[in-house]
Write a structure and sequence with these properties.
With 333 residues, this protein is of the alpha/beta class. The protein contains twelve helices and seven strands. α5 packs across α6 (169-180). The radius of gyration is 21 Å and the shape is globular.
């Protein structure tokens, strides 16, 4: 589920492809018309663009009762990947929405991505986000409201609210924030969402795609951005979370399709993702250029060194069972 980039950021950190479809393309119902004021979108992580395209062929709407009617932009996303390549005009945004630079190695790989796109025949132009795109935590009321709703629904099911230690500190904070917020606060955030979407549409009207880094820094250690510290500080959590991944949430706000592509590896062998965002309901064009970049870089053929160690372990442990042996053969390939 992608809210705030929770498909694209893990994809960038794990060296796989993660695409957020256009708002309303994949159904979220039937019991809800939208989630998180429309910021929430469902899709999958995959090793290849073809896998994601095939999944979209299966899952896309339209959905009865949905607040807006969004239909597929082509008959088959998978078949579209065989279409002739098209030349695109791409806005390349290297800086965070607040204008600050990313980590040096991320910036270097971003420039390499620009050069690669030029070699492929696309027009690349350096650009910046409009000031309205720097919303960050202002839109947190949307996902916090969803957390609070889920907690309340579960509490109604079991007849009590969560006990100490049953949910994370971040979820408790979201529950408290929701209870202290008013309908006016929610409507103000929606107005801010609209202003940001309008500014983004005006700024990038002449472009087919927007390219940004997927994250502002290299993948962090597990637990570096956690929501359950002993002395939880929400402001510090925001600095860590949005400081690491400031590029994804704006496209949840605008509803545009966006994807993290595992184009590069760092000097230390860590994945570096590059994000591409398309025009609303032009998911097929985003998939098309993603597929071309996959062919150009060969990312789907990469395997991390830990996989070789896993295969060796399977070989060591799998000799006594035919089923284990079959798994061992697959792992060793």
């Amino acid at each position: 589920s992608d809210i705030g980039g929770s498909i694209r950021v893990p994809a960038a950190c794990c060296g796989v492809f993660g695409m957020k479809p256009s708002r309303g393309l994949n159904p979220v119902g039937p019991y809800r018309d939208q989630v998180g004021a429309g910021l929430f979108v469902e899709n999958v992580l995959s090793r290849t663009v073809r896998d994601t395209a095939a999944m979209l062929d299966i899952t896309v709407g339209p959905e009865p009762g949905a607040p807006c009617f969004v239909s597929r932009s082509v008959l088959s996303y998978l078949d579209w990947l065989s279409s002739p390549a098209e030349r695109m005009r791409i806005a390349c945004v290297a800086h965070r929405p607040d204008g600050t630079p990313v980590a040096a190695e991320i910036g270097e790989k971003f420039r390499q991505a620009m050069a690669l796109l030029e070699e492929m025949g696309h027009e690349v132009i350096q650009a910046r986000f409009p000031p309205e795109a720097d919303g960050g935590a202002e839109w947190s009321i949307f996902w916090m409201s969803e957390v609070a709703l889920l907690v309340d629904e579960r509490a109604n099911d079991i007849g009590r609210m969560p006990l100490p230690g049953e949910i994370e500190a971040l979820s408790l904070h979201a529950l408290d924030r929701f209870r202290r917020s008013s309908a006016a606060d929610y409507l103000k955030a929606q107005a801010r969402q609209h202003r940001a979407s309008l500014a983004m549409a005006r700024t990038f009207d002449g472009f087919d795609l927007i390219m940004t880094p997927a994250t502002a820094d290299l993948p962090r250690l597990i637990g570096a951005v956690r929501g359950d510290d002993a002395a939880f500080d929400y402001a510090a959590w925001v600095d860590r979370a949005y400081g690491f991944a400031p590029f994804t949430e704006i496209f949840n706000v605008t509803g545009q399709p966006a994807a993290s592509l595992p184009l590069f590896l760092s000097e230390g062998g860590l994945p570096i993702g590059i994000q591409l965002a398309g025009r609303p309901n032009e998911d097929h064009r985003l998939l098309g250029i993603s597929y071309a970049l996959e062919q150009a870089t060969g990312w789907s053929k990469r395997r991390p060194p830990v996989q070789a160690r896993l295969a060796a372990l399977a070989i060591e442990l799998g000799g006594t069972c035919p089923r284990n042996g079959a798994i061992t053969a697959r792992l060793a390939e």
